[in-house]
Amino acid sequence: MKSLRRAVPLLAVPLALTVACSGSSDPGGSTGPDSATSQLFGDLGLVPSPATEQYVAQGKDNQISPENFDLFEADVFIGYFPDESFRESYSAMPVFASLDVVREGRHYVPTDEEWRAFRSTSLLSMAWLGEQLPEKIAAAVRGDA
């Protein structure tokens, strides 16, 4: 888990929490601070951006509609799209495409396998993600996603 901290010179990288896009026209959601996914990111040295933290504290973590996409602005954004057409629909939204984190290549899109592991709370999946993610997220922080 410490390999991300070695790969990225920032010890606490503001992170807009993971968007759980459902594959429908419903708004995306973000993981709350007590989720296994958030805890894994914390172990990797990533923290929520202040704006995202405040939004989640207000109890709104299950929906992020387009007017709130500015919450995705951070050093890195990790967002999953279940299929290419859904990803294309987001990319076609000017409010999404114009985000610095998207334009600058700092948006990491987990693979289907990684996303399933994020959604699991098993120790095996978290350990596997701890091995898979550090270099991929470090590349996103550098803008190489």
Describe the structure.
Helices cover 44% and strands 12% of the residues. With 145 residues, it is α/β, with parallel strands linked by helices. It has helices at 3-7, 36-43, 50-57, 84-91, 94-97, 100-103, 112-119, 123-141, and strands at 13-20, 46-48, 76-80, 107-108. The protein has a single domain (3-141), classed as Rossmann fold (3-Layer(aba) Sandwich), CATH 3.40.50. Helix 2 (36-43) links the parallel strand 1 (13-20) and strand 2 (46-48). The chain is globular.
Any descriptors?
four-stranded parallel β-sheet; alpha/beta; Rossmann fold; 8 helices
Which class best fits the helix and strand makeup?
Answer: alpha/beta
Question: Percent helix among the residues?
Answer: 40-55%
What is the tally of beta strands?
Answer: 4
Instruction: Look up the CATH topology.
Output: Rossmann fold
**Helical segment tally?**
8
- Using only C-alpha atoms, the radius of gyration works out to 14 Å
Note the overall shape: globular
Major beta sheet summary? 4 strands, parallel
Q: How many domains, as an integer? A: 1
**In terms of quaternary structure, what is this?**
single chain
In the predicted model, the low-confidence regions spanning at least 5 consecutive residues are: 8-12, 19-26
Give the integer mean of the pLDDT values: 75
How much β-strand is present in the residues? 5-15%
Q: Look at the structure and name the CATH superfamily.
A: Nitrogenase molybdenum iron protein domain
The top-level CATH class is Alpha Beta
How far is the first residue's CA from the last residue's CA? 20 Å
Order of strands across the biggest sheet?
2-1-3-4
Order of helices and strands: HEHEHEHHHEHH
CATH architecture, please? 3-Layer(aba) Sandwich
